[in-house]
TrEMBL record:
It is found in: Membrane. The keyword Transmembrane applies. Signal peptide: none annotated. This is DUF4870 domain-containing protein. It comes from Thermoactinomyces vulgaris.
Length: 106
């Protein structure tokens, strides 16, 4: 497998890791892979998860007070939509930056 195809596959897996290893896979990719784009993407994925997963769980806790239900729905949709969008961009070999995470990683 050539390097470009391997990097494309790794990018897709980093985006998809939201559902099975949201911290582990991006961290491993960041530590092992030499490609600058893959490293940047894996770091953005880590920051994305570090921000949105706590927000999602906080909104779940607040849902007992009824105020968190809209936030839980919103953050749940975001945790699905943005990784799927990232998978599509990686498939089309286009650059994708996670929202919020791109503010922390230049």
């Amino acid at each position: 497998m050539e390097v470009a195809s391997l990097n494309k596959l790794i990018k897709i897996l980093i985006h998809a890791s939201t559902w099975f290893a949201p911290v582990l896979l991006p961290l491993i990719a960041w530590l092992i892979v030499k490609d600058r784009d893959v490293k940047r993407l894996s770091l953005q994925a880590l920051v994305f998860h570090a921000i949105f997963l706590p927000l999602f769980f906080i909104s779940k806790v607040l849902s007992f007070l009824l105020i968190g239900i809209p936030f839980a729905i919103l953050f749940g949709i975001m945790l699905i939509y943005f990784p799927v969008k990232g998978i599509a961009y990686a498939w089309w070999e286009k650059q994708y930056e996670y929202p919020v995470a791109k503010w922390f990683i230049h």
